[in-house]
Amino acid sequence: MASIINQISFQNFFNYFGSLEDNTYEFSEGVNIVVADNGGGKSKFFNGFLWIFYDEILDSDTKTRKNIKNQAVKVCSDKAKNEAAVNDLIECNVVLEFSDNRFRYRICKGFRIRKSKSDSSLTESSDWQVFFKDLEISKRDLQLLEFHEVYDDEEHKRILNKLIQPNLREYSLFQGEEVDKLIDFNQADSLNRAVKSLTNINKYDELEKITKYVADRAEKDMNDRVASNDAASQNYREKLDEKETKRNSLESEIEKLESYEHSYTENKGEVDKLEGLNENAEARKEFDDKIKDQNGKLKALKEEYDRLVEKLNERFFDGGFGWIAMGCEKGVSSFKEKLNKYREVRTIKKVSILSDDSNNQINLLPPDSPDSVTLQTMVEREHCYVCNREAKEDTEPWKHIVSLLNRKELGQNKSVQMFKNDLNDFFGDIQLGAQSYVGRIGGIQQSILRTREKEQELLERITRIKDKVKNLKDERSYLIIGDEDDMADARQIMGQYKGALTRLQKAEDDIVKAKNRIASLNESIRKDENELGRMRPEDTPKEYELHLDIASDLRDAAQRTRIRVFDGMILKLEKEANQHFQNLIKYNELAGGILRFKKNPRGTIDFKYLDEEGNEVTGASEGFQRMKVLAVLMAVISVNPYGYLYPLLADAPLSAFGQGFIKGFFEETDKVFPQSIILIKDLYDRDSENKLNKLGGELLKDASVSTIYLNQIPKDLKQIEVYTEHKKIK
Amino acid sequence: MTSNEFREVILKKTPKYSVSVEYLFEKLANKQGKGEFSQFGPLYELYIYAFYLGLKIRSRIELASGSNAKKFVEIAGWKSSSPLIDFLLLTIFSRSDEIGFDWNELEDMEEKELAEVVRKVVVFIEEYAYGGLDYLKNKFDSGQLDNSQYLFVDLLSDLVLNKD
Fold first, then answer.
1. A98-141: per-residue pLDDT in tens?
2. Which of B3, B114, B149 sits opposite A425 (nearest CB)?
3. End-to-end alpha-carbon separation of chain B, Å?
4. Cross-chain residue pair A331–B150, CB shorter than 8 Å
5. In which band, very low, low, confident or very high, does the pLDDT at A47 lie, cut at 50, 70 and 90?
6. What is the pLDDT of residues A503-558, one digit of tens each?
7. A150 φ, ψ to 5°?
8. Inter-residue contact A465 to A235 (CB < 8 Å)
9. Nearest residue on chain B to A430, judged by CA atoms?
10. Chain A contact for B113, CB < 8 A?
11. Less CB within 10 Å around the terminal CB: N or C of chain B?
């Protein structure tokens, strides 16, 4: 008979403040539900089970399981610690009672902590002394009233195993996302391990091994017996040796086969894992290339933008922009006026100085007067090019030209001394040098506007490219399932996939070849055995032959049976899994696919999820993924002829998966598990009168649900005052 | 004195600024990296900007003498390879009446007299730059400086356009 948990009680365990009696939950066969909102103590409740089975609790901060020995201060109720006086001992216990068809058992795990100083921190381990108690187990006959303590450690273990067998605990006790890992379809061995743990298929393996051992012994006995007989002919011994050699080859082939099978399993796992990824990898790579290209453009544009903005102020001083000159029109025209005036005054001044010259040698010449080189030529050629007449040497015209030539030279020398400070070039250079600024003054506002437009244009282009990249990434994200994107880039996935596929193919070929060689060796050995049978000396005792015949028959029968049972189990598994799956998702609008189980060359099971056309489905929603796992788990349990003998204890197995899935889950759980205790928030509705939502209300009336508890934390409490109230509403 | 010599005398000068506005150089002109506000690169850019700002708002503030005034880098070091210095000189000499000299008279001055004119030119630069820096300081201190890349463009632009 299955083990049924009758009750669990907590004392000062996390927010289960108070005595065991204050925090007792009674359960019975069938579906039991504890409804609680976030923070309502579901995970703490589940921690009670973890303590009982593993001496662990789940650290909600790190999401990892930790040994309770180091967590005692954290585990003990804050309210209890806060209310304790110095040297007060606080009891912290979890007590679970369960029964089978004969006994009721009580398991208690606990510790006491003592407050060592008045200002003890509620979280500091060194401020508290912790005393762990030994595991206490007691039992009573169902017909009697009193519990008797069990002292024997072995029996402690046996009783705990009776509650849930160690190898089945992972399938019986899980929390939220852990469900997905129960059967990891991406790991070839995961399903097979579940099948081995949850069904009795192992017994057939054992039977096959035992019958083979017996047959081998019978044969050895027989051969030893014959070999010791002098009458055994040389031929017989030779044949026997020949057969032994073949048997050795057979063993070596079997070893090889095992290594091929190992390689097959490993590579199958990798191929399965990478298959979905690879399908997307090609498409993802295309997106990646496009994204890379756009990101390159984006980078260049951003750099251009940054340059523009950062160097904006340089445009005040850069001759190509000259923004500092904005509004300086008046200054420029004032400068020009002053320059003109300066030059006028300067010329007049110059003229007056020249007029004062007594030799009259530095008179200014009229415009277009011949320069000194021309004057020199005119003197030499005795010809005036101004009036185009002869000017013979020593004539008046010739002397006039000579005087002009001499006067110019004198004048040049004289002009140096005309002003103390000659600043004509100073002002001229300023006018010339500032020209690039001056010429731009009128267009500065336009230039600023163009810069703003350029900036705006760059910003728009950046936004457009960002949008493009975002769209590409969005599209690409549809090709990603889970966290696979962390793995590596698409190219690497494609390479890994191809490699694993090649290795898988090779392992498959090797397995087939090895199996053929094994079959051929077996056949050859069988013939040798027949031959040896005929060659045995007359006086070989009949009982040896009979023993060998029977043992060999049994061995062959066990082998055939195992194969038949296994094949039958796969068919049944598939049927059951699909049945459970359809039931689990029946309140969901989307139709699910088909679960397909197939025996692989290694003799274990492969699993596939197919659509109606037989194509493999990848990327189904998380809800469907989890239902798949639950359906297969339920199927594996259902194919067991003895059913399942342990309770299911699950914390938030379907968190946020929608009411349809949850409804299907409760209905189906009832069919498979003799008892289930489900901690769930998805039936909670703060605003409803009975704090249950619509589905919660339905389950309240549903006959297949045995018990419903509602957990609540009183409103507006500080952390140090928190405690959980519970109410049995069914 | 030749034109070149006169130019040299001016460019060798190091105008001063008041220590009361020194922190503006840290906040608004800093090549070391991005700050909260739009920034100038070299310090003299802010100084010249402030000078033109002072002219625009007609704010000329006398510098206190002594340790309150710090020497700035010499004018020759202000973007010497660009037409900036020429434009600066253009601006200064267009205001010769205000500074107190006549272009033509310069040509007849003794060196001592010229040096006095150059001193006045430097004071002219210093006082308008201080006027501009003080304007920025008040805006900065009262949180009126717009945290935008166009801060200095807008500031000057608004003054120019509003005046028109």
1. 999 899 999 999 999 999 888 888 888 888 999 999 999 999 99
2. B3
3. 41
4. no
5. very high
6. 888 988 998 899 899 989 989 988 888 888 788 777 778 888 888 889 989 999 99
7. -100, 125
8. no
9. B86
10. no
11. C
Cβ distance of B108 and A309 shorter than 8 Å? no
Q: Considering CB atoms only, which of B34, B45, B83 is closest to A319?
A: B83
Q: Which helix (H) or strand (E) holds A398?
A: helix A396-416
pTM equals 0.54
Nearest chain A Cα distance for residue B87, angstroms: 5
- B38:A313 CB<8 A: yes
Check if B118 contacts A (Cβ < 8 Å): no
Q: Which residues of B touch A452 (CB under 8 A)?
A: 150
**Three-state DSSP class for residue A434:** coil
CA distances from B159 to A332, A343, B52 (A): 18, 34, 11
Give CA–CA dist A572/A637, Å, rounded: 11
Q: Are B123 and B54 in contact (CB under 8 A)?
A: no
Query: Which amino acid, A278?
Result: N
| Lookup result for tokens 């070839």 | A188
- Per CB-CB distance under 8 Å, the chain B contacts of A438 are 87, 90
Q: Does B156 touch chain A (CB under 8 A)?
A: yes
CA torsion A191-A194-A196-A199 (nearest 10°) is -120
Here the tokens at position A409 are 């030279």
Residue A361 has pLDDT above 60, yes or no: no
Indicate yes or no: CB of A421 within 8 angstroms of CB of B152: no
Whether residue A198 is predicted with pLDDT greater than 80 in this model: the reply is no
Query: What ipTM was estimated for this complex?
Result: 0.94
Average pLDDT, integer, range A176-190: 76
Interface test with A, best of B86, B95, B113, B156 (most A CBs within 10 A): B86
| Distance to chain B for A176, nearest Cα, Å | 48
Q: Does A326 sit within 8 Å of B160, measured CB to CB? A: yes
| Cα–Cα dist A659/A663, whole Å | 6
Question: Domains of chain A by range and CATH?
Answer: 4-164+646-728 (3.40.50.300), 185-214+552-645 (3.40.50), 323-439 (no CATH)
Both structure tokens of A329: 């029109």
Contact A309 B149 (CB under 8 A): yes
Alpha carbon of B66: minimum distance to chain A alpha carbons (Å): 31
Look up residue A680 and give its DSSP letter.
E
Cβ contact (<8 Å) for A421 and B1?
yes
Radius of gyration of chain A (CA): 50
Give B 121-140 residues with CB within 8 A of chain A: none
- Sequence-distant (6+) residues with CB within 8 A of B98 are B124
Distance from CA of A300 to the nearest CA of B (A): 20
* The length of chain A, given as a count of residues: 730
Calculate the alpha carbon distances from A700 to A690, A707, A713 in Å. 10, 8, 21
Q: Of A58-67, A268-277, A692-701, B105-114, where does mean pLDDT reach its minimum? A: A268-277
Query: CA torsion A97→A98→A99→A104, rounded to 10°?
Result: -20
Count of beta carbons in the 10 Å neighbourhood of residue A251? 12
Tokens read off for A148: 């008797």
State how far the Cα of A644 lies from the Cα of A244, in Å rounded to an integer. 46
Could you state, in order of their start, the residue ranges of all structural domains in chain B? 3-153
Question: What are A340's strand-pairing partners?
Answer: none
Q: Are B73 and A315 in contact (CB under 8 A)?
A: no
